Amino acid sequence: MKIDLHCHSYYSDDGISSPEKLIKMALKKGLDGIALTDHDTTKGWKEAAEVAKKLNAVLIWGEEIKIKKNGKTVGEILGYFLKKEINPRGKSVEEVIDEIKKQGGLAIIAHPYHWIKPFKELEKYKNLADGIEVFNARSQTKKGNQKSFIFAQKNNLAMTAGSDAHHCSEVGDAYIEAEVKNLEELKEAVLEKKVKIF
């Protein structure tokens, strides 16, 4: 199964494409589907689910959650396999991760070495999250991706990858692959570090 784990639709304030266009592009590029991870919203889930069902595509319900402390961004967490939206307002990193896990989801630190907004205090939170995004095709430089990979290896953390697409043309620029039959197995493969990064 090949999945782009980081995609934004026009339900993100900086996204351009519809969930339908994102999913169609994923299939066109030989992927099985996407994780829809709009910024602090799940408004696109219903639309994406209808399209995924119609096209027999895989869809992971996700959200990219921005966490602030004293008005300053601490970083972003990717929540996967969620059941409902998580509102980060007034919540700490610990509280957001706890809420993701209570929903049975995976909490992944997004683009920790982002060239503008890196994840602050990565060392402090590394063992709370389920893993880190080691390959981000849009928001990290090659050096940033390398640093993420080395950090994950050194700390024995689960690794993910995603395009961080904000336009459908970017879908599939980074993705994971695993020998699994369903989403529950995919979730386990991520946790057990049995995914390939592309």
Secondary-structure topology with pairs:
Layout: E1 2-7, H1 19-28, E2 33-36, H2 45-55, E3 58-69, E4 72-80, H3 93-102, E5 106-109, H4 122-125, E6 131-136, H5 142-154, E7 158-162, E8 176-177, H6 183-191, E9 196-197
Parallel strand pairs: 1-2, 2-3, 5-6, 6-7
Antiparallel strand pairs: 1-8, 3-4, 4-5, 8-9
Describe this structure in words.
The protein has 198 residues and is of the alpha/beta class. The protein has helices at residues 19-28, 45-55, 93-102, 122-125, 142-154, 183-191; strands at residues 2-7, 33-36, 58-69, 72-80, 106-109, 131-136, 158-162, 176-177, 196-197. Helix 1 (19-28) runs parallel beside helix 2. The longest helix is centred in the last third of the chain and has 13 residues, at 142-154. The two termini are 12 Å apart. It contains six helices and nine strands, in the order E-H-E-H-E-E-H-E-H-E-H-E-E-H-E. Helix content is 29%, strand content 25%. Residues 3-69 form the Polymerase/histidinol phosphatase N-terminal domain.
CATH superfamily membership: Metal-dependent hydrolases
Domain count, please report it.
1
Give the mean pLDDT.
97
The largest β sheet comes out as:
9 strands, mixed
What is the CATH first-level class name? Alpha Beta
Neighbour order of strands in the largest sheet: 7-6-5-4-3-2-1-8-9
- What does the overall shape look like? globular
- Class of secondary structure makeup: alpha/beta
- What is the string of SSEs from the N terminus onward? EHEHEEHEHEHEEHE
- The CATH architecture category equals Alpha-Beta Barrel
Number of helices: 6
CATH fold node name: TIM Barrel
Distance between the termini: 12 Å
Helix content: 25-40%
Give unreliable regions as ranges: none
**Rg calc:** 15 Å
Strand percentage: 25-35%
Domain Polymerase/histidinol phosphatase N-terminal: 3-69
Pfam families: PHP (PF02811)
GO molecular function: 5'-3' DNA exonuclease activity; 5'-3' RNA exonuclease activity
InterPro entries: PHP_dom, PHP_domain, Pol/His_phosphatase_N, Pol/histidinol_Pase-like
